[in-house]
Amino acid sequence: MSSIERPEEFKSFQNTISQKLEVVAGSLRRHTVLEATARVLIAILALACFSLFFDWWLELSLITRVLYFLMGLSAVGYLIYRYVFLPLKVSLTPIEIANLIDQSKKVSAEQAIAPRVASVLQLPNHLMEAEQSLPMIEQAVQHNYRQLSHYPFQESIDPRHTRNCLLALLVTFLLPACFVLALPDTARLWGQRWLLGSNEPWPRDTQLTVVGLEEGQWVIPRGETATLQVHADDAGETTESVWLHLQGKDGESETITMNRFQTGDFRYELPPLQLPVEAYAWGGDDETESFQIIPIDRPRITDLKIIATHPRLSEPFVSHFSASEGNVRLLPHSEVVLELTTNVKVRQIDVDSEDVSLQWVKTDDTHFKTKWSHKKPVNFKLILQSAEHDINSHPRPVSIGVQPDRSPRLSFRYSGVRQRITAKATIPFSLIAQDDFGIRLVNMTSMIPLSGVTTKTDQEVAPKAEELEFGGTKSTDQSKTEVKSKYPVYGPAEPAVETVIDEEKQVSIAEMKLNPGAVITFQSHAEDNCYTGVQKTSSRQLVFRIVKPEELFREILLRQQQLRSRLRKTRDQVEALRDQLKLANSLEQAADWMRMHQLARREVGQVSHALNGSVDEMKLNQLGGEETYQLISQTVLRPLENLHQREMEQQRQSLETLRSKSPESMEQMTARQDEILKSLDKILNNMAQWDSFIDVVNQLNAVIKLEQLVKDKTEELKKKQVDSIFDK
């Protein structure tokens, strides 16, 4: 064989041995990956088992679980780097593979295959060198090749190790599967806590439940106290205490021992909150998940507006309810629109009412409206349901009453006279008519029995009645027993807009020509323009009786004499006060003096007012003349008024100074009291002269009447004699 063919033969030797060793290298790499995978999966399974054990035992927090998870990832990463990345990164030559085979089998140097592989692969490279012995190289290569060609390279890898790795992989898959099938709830909870970051607690002998918790949030009304309730379900020993940890947004935290309401029921009264708070509770062997206490605004009505239209109203009635306002009353048959505005979004409005059924129309999430025809009073409560949370508003009561268009109210009075008047009297009347929306008509009527009208014959009754003042419609039917007269006061007004009519009316009785003993009745009437029809109201009747002038004069004079008697008693009180002031040595009785003076002054004022009223009654009944009125006014009324308003007022001011640090001298007060006493004596004397004057006048009037009666009788007798002469 030539020297050229030898290298080709050696090259085939080298390829054969290299291919066999490359096959071993591939198997070695696969075995390395399989072993590394088994190591990593076993490590992961061990980490998972440890996490399950410690988490169930210690209830690890989320931060601790995250740190443990990161440490586990680091350990798994190291194993992958150590047993996968580094071995696969190494590029093994056939000689190194042979050396690894020798190391794995722990053979002696004579049995090692690495030198033989090196001879086959490396010695042919020295054939071209001059100093080398070619026969020796050829013999060594051939000898080593023959030994290596029968060597079992595939048997160098232990199949038992491979089976062990596969068995380990099978175990790492079967154990979790069996765990999931056997304990699905535990597996689910472990997955949620470690893979999803949930804080759901592990099942314990004690199970704590926060009442009202939804999706980790407990929603309460902002700015209101709320009761946090925790239920403890115990499978073993009864839980005696539960603690609550609160942490605000500002970082401040506190731990609170909850109040035990009853077995398994723990509560805590939260103060009003404005901002969210993080919280969790623990007790027994359980701990709740961390949850948020979120205060939100309770739904409430910020504006409640009523718009009512009615045929009686020219413009719609608009009213804004507020918490301080009372009820609203609307006219019957009003068309009502109720508009409501809320502070937050509202899902639904509940109406608690037996009077009305309301259908709400949503304008937007915070504006609603409804309408109805108002025929009767309605009372209902509005409850708002929040659109975002399960929280309702406090019931808002609404009461809308019915405002009836009431008939007019009348006040009908007279003044200046009493119910006994003369046939020439003038009666002042005061009329006040009030209505809710407008007075249309106000008038007065009088009713007079026919027997009270002065007549000569029965045929003259109707003409005399027609001559009464104000042209009222009078009855001419002889069968009727009374005559009615009408006195217009106000109206008729179209449209009626005045709601209050205050008028004064004077009626002269002289034109009615009534006889003493007659009775006359006055009554006032009013009408409004109610949209359902005219409403009429009549006042109480005022009844007057006609008496003779001298009879009424005597009554008035008797009342004046009674007033003079009261004034005389007052004069004695004034004198007693004057005597006490003269004999006073100290100011200890200043309060008593002041009280005595005030009583006397009040009595003088009342007598003065009553005397003025009696004079007005005389004037209205035409009793006496101007000289009579001037006489009593100048001699009695004006002095009484001056005494009450000036002299006694000055004395009151002087007595007031007795309580001050600089009192007026007792001599001055005594002198002023003497002046008051003198004035009273003078007034009493004038009143006595007035009585005497009235007696004289009455006597003169009696003489005049007697003479007039004699004259009338004489003329009547004379007429009869004349008539008898002509009859003959």
Give me the secondary-structure topology.
Layout: H1 5-58, H2 62-89, H3 94-105, H4 114-122, H5 134-149, H6 159-182, H7 184-195, E1 206-210, E2 217-221, E3 226-234, E4 243-248, E5 253-257, E6 259-262, E7 265-270, E8 277-283, E9 286-287, E10 291-296, E11 301-309, E12 317-321, E13 328-330, E14 334-342, E15 346-352, E16 361-364, E17 367-374, E18 378-386, E19 396-402, E20 409-414, E21 420-421, E22 426-434, E23 439-449, H8 461-466, E24 482-490, E25 500-508, E26 519-528, E27 536-538, E28 542-546, H9 549-583, H10 590-620, H11 626-656, H12 666-727
What is the mean pLDDT?
79
Q: Note the beta-strand portion.
A: 15-25%
Q: Name the shape in a single word.
A: rod-shaped
Secondary structure tally: strands: 28
The chain-level structural class is alpha+beta
Count structural domains: 5
CA radius of gyration:
63 Å
> Largest sheet at a glance?
6 strands, mixed
Task: Please report the distance between the alpha carbons of the first and last residues.
Answer: 221 Å
Q: Please, how many helices?
A: 12
Low-confidence region ranges: 1-5, 455-480
Classify the helix fraction into a percent range.
40-55%
Keywords: Coiled coil, Membrane, Transmembrane, Transmembrane helix
Transmembrane segments: 36-54, 66-85, 165-183
Coiled coil: 560-587
Task: Characterise the protein shown here.
This protein has 728 residues and is an alpha+beta fold. The protein folds into five domains: 5-182, no CATH class; 206-296, Immunoglobulin-like (Sandwich); 301-402, Immunoglobulin-like, CATH 2.60.40.10; 409-452 and 480-547, Immunoglobulin-like (Sandwich), CATH 2.60.40; 550-716, Four Helix Bundle (Hemerythrin (Met), subunit A) (Up-down Bundle), CATH 1.20.120. It contains twelve helices and 28 strands. The protein has helices at residues 5-58, 62-89, 94-105, 114-122, 134-149, 159-182, 184-195, 461-466, 549-583, 590-620, 626-656, 666-727, and strands at residues 206-210, 217-221, 226-234, 243-248, 253-257, 259-262, 265-270, 277-283, 286-287, 291-296, 301-309, 317-321, 328-330, 334-342, 346-352, 361-364, 367-374, 378-386, 396-402, 409-414, 420-421, 426-434, 439-449, 482-490, 500-508, 519-528, 536-538, 542-546. The strands form six sheets. Strands 2, 4, 5, 8, 9 and 10 form a six-stranded mixed β-sheet that branches. A hairpin with a 4-residue loop joins strand 4 and strand 5 (253-257). The longest helix is centred in the C-terminal third of the chain and has 62 residues, at 666-727. The radius of gyration is 63 Å and the shape is rod-shaped. The termini are far apart.
